[in-house]
Amino acid sequence: MNNSPDAAASMSAARSVLVLVDYQHRLMPQIHGGAQAVARALRLADAARELGVHIVGTEQNPAGLGPNDEAVRQRCASTLSKMHFDACEDGLLDLLGGDPVNSTAEVVVAGCEAHVCLLQTALGLLRAGRRVWVVADACASRSAQDHALAMQRLQRAGATLVSTEMVVFEWLRSCTHPRFKPVLALVKARIE
Question: pTM above the 0.90 mark?
Answer without folding.
Answer: yes
